[in-house]
From TrEMBL:
<keyword id="KW-0597">Phosphoprotein</keyword>
<dbReference type="Pfam" id="PF00579">
    <property type="entry name" value="tRNA-synt_1b"/>
</dbReference>
<keyword id="KW-0547">Nucleotide-binding</keyword>
<comment type="similarity">
    <text>Belongs to the class-I aminoacyl-tRNA synthetase family.</text>
</comment>
<dbReference type="GO" id="GO:0004830">
    <property type="term" value="F:tryptophan-tRNA ligase activity"/>
</dbReference>
<keyword id="KW-0648">Protein biosynthesis</keyword>
<keyword id="KW-0030">Aminoacyl-tRNA synthetase</keyword>
<dbReference type="GO" id="GO:0006436">
    <property type="term" value="P:tryptophanyl-tRNA aminoacylation"/>
</dbReference>
<dbReference type="InterPro" id="IPR002305">
    <property type="entry name" value="aa-tRNA-synth_Ic"/>
</dbReference>
<dbReference type="InterPro" id="IPR001412">
    <property type="entry name" value="aa-tRNA-synth_I_CS"/>
</dbReference>
<protein>
    <recommendedName>
        <fullName>Tryptophan--tRNA ligase, cytoplasmic</fullName>
        <ecNumber>6.1.1.2</ecNumber>
    </recommendedName>
</protein>
<feature type="domain" description="WHEP-TRS">
    <location>
        <begin position="13"/>
        <end position="69"/>
    </location>
</feature>
<dbReference type="GO" id="GO:0005524">
    <property type="term" value="F:ATP binding"/>
</dbReference>
<dbReference type="InterPro" id="IPR000738">
    <property type="entry name" value="WHEP-TRS_dom"/>
</dbReference>
<dbReference type="GO" id="GO:0005737">
    <property type="term" value="C:cytoplasm"/>
</dbReference>
<dbReference type="InterPro" id="IPR014729">
    <property type="entry name" value="Rossmann-like_a/b/a_fold"/>
</dbReference>
<keyword id="KW-0067">ATP-binding</keyword>
Length: 473
């Protein structure tokens, strides 16, 4: 039967439409190259022309291969206007702003809540100590139901933590550490169990990887995660490719989620198309399942009422919006979330870093010399064109990547403020600011590398073995 355009094309973003046109163009070329029947080629061409028309109607631009659109949004009358909107989904982040994504707008669009001073103060009162610098500086900036987590904790009710990593390469970069640094702090101050999902199945489905290579990356990434200092008695790390086949509780929850989410819903949430493999379409249920304590009967003794708190980057929120929608319908508590900003690439905050581009970030395998070279050569500067201009007008910390990185990794608030004032006034030059970052990151990465050397294959096996943790439920 001939392909026909989906009736819900209007719900797709400009970038998603662009990808649909590109896919259909490739299909037409493949049919012609394979000398397919004429009626089949004609039907595919009609589909391509229809998609191109939808693209032009939505964006006001003709489709051009290799030139993705600027992010456009539909307004109420169906016409289009260009806006300073950011595009964020679990696989793509696009912004035209050198300062990075507008997170206040993203909170409104996603319907989450801002982590404000009142919530930070409440966390401080609850734990009896100074909040983590990621909270103090707005790096974790948004939440869902964190108040409920604090209510439960104050009433002596336990919860657990869940975070994860998609192992797309052997080496992780410093941006990958952000959720684990914060999760480790949360685990220590609240004294709760932690599960860490390694989505090697996802990377097999989305990347050009074998299942064996994806699993190998998962185990290598696990070593870097363990090197962050997690307590083996309180932490369970699992590979999807490994754990799904051994846990009936986990698989039961996957099936329950799958039953209550329609194909139209996942297309609307994630932008999947009819050309995507069914593995991609079913994967969101796999990322949802760790949100429910019954997925880990060995830890929670089969209890289904233990609430979950998920620290993650904001691009993962679509998975958990879906999860929170499904949870009441399958008799599970909604997971709570804490969202972080994106860690900027060395070249600027317009995009996330890429593990495939060695110059886009500082990797956990980099030598002190490589760290120094990368920062000096590639770190985007907020400084002026000349020393004279910089002394006169000062630098822009809002776009300077070295200052952004220090915001993540420099613990001393007073020192960070001093650097900001000195750079903004022109007293501190770009090269001097980069030197501070180099001197901050070199010992941090070296210490991580030393800890990672102590992580043996046997330790990885212990962390990844389903077992009872040091908690009673």
């Amino acid at each position: 039967m001939a392909d026909s355009p989906d009736c819900d094309l209007k719900s797709l973003s400009p970038l998603q439409l662009f990808e649909r046109v590109t896919e259909q163009g490739e299909k037409v070329r493949a049919l012609k190259a394979g000398k397919a029947p004429k009626d089949e080629i004609d039907a595919a061409v009609r589909m391509l022309l229809s998609l191109k028309l939808s693209y032009k109607t939505t964006t006001g631009q003709d489709y051009q291969a290799g030139l993705p659109p600027k992010d456009l949004v539909l307004i109420n009358n169906g016409t289009t206007k260009e806006e300073d909107e950011d595009f964020v989904d679990p696989w793509n982040v696009q912004t035209s702003n050198a300062k990075g994504v507008d997170y206040d707008k993203l909170i409104v669009r996603f319907g989450s809540s801002k982590i404000d001073t009142d919530l930070i103060n409440r966390i401080e009162r609850t734990i009896g100590q100074k909040p983590h610098r990621f909270l103090r500086r707005g790096i974790f900036f948004s939440h869902r139901d964190m108040d409920q987590i604090l209510d439960a904790y104050e009433n002596k009710k336990s919860f657990y933590l869940y975070t994860g990593r998609g192992p797309s390469s052997e080496a992780m970069h410093v941006g990958h550490l952000i959720p684990f640094i914060f999760t480790k702090w949360l685990q220590e101050v609240f004294d709760v169990p932690l599960v860490i999902q390694l989505t090697d199945d996802e990377k097999y489905l989305w990347k050009d990887l074998t299942t064996e290579k994806a699993y190998e990356y998962a185990r290598e990434n696990a070593k870097d995660i363990i090197a962050c200092g997690f307590d083996i008695n309180k932490t369970f790390i699992f590979s999807d490719l490994d754990y799904l086949g051994t846990s009936t509780g986990f698989y039961k929850n996957i099936v329950k989620v799958q039953k209550h989410v329609t194909f139209n819903q996942v297309k609307g949430i994630f932008g999947f198309t009819d050309s995507d493999c069914i593995g991609k379409i079913s994967f969101p249920a796999i990322q949802a399942a760790p949100s429910f304590s019954s997925s880990f009967p060995q830890i929670f003794n089969g209890k289904e009422n233990i609430q979950c708190l998920i620290p993650c980057a904001i691009d993962q929120d679509p998975y958990f919006r879906m999860t929170r929608d499904v949870a009441p319908r399958i008799g599970q508590p909604k997971p709570a979330l804490l969202h972080s900003v994106f860690f900027p690439a060395l070249q600027g905050a317009q995009t996330k870093m890429s593990a495939s581009d060695p110059n886009s970030s500082i990797f956990l395998t980099d030598t002190p010399k490589q760290i120094k070279t990368k920062i000096n050569k590639h770190a985007f500067s907020g400084g002026r064109d000349t020393i004279e201009e910089h002394r006169k007008y000062g630098g822009n910390c809002d776009v300077d990547v070295s200052f952004m990185y220090l915001t993540f990794f420099l613990e001393d608030d007073d020192r960070l403020e001093q650097l900001k004032q000195a750079y903004t006034s022109g007293e501190l030059l770009t090269g001097e600011l980069k030197k501070v970052l180099i001197e901050t990151l070199q010992p941090l990465i070296a210490a991580h590398q030393e800890r990672r050397k102590q992580v043996t294959d046997e330790m990885v096996k212990q962390f990844m073995t389903p077992r009872k943790l040091a908690f009673e439920f």
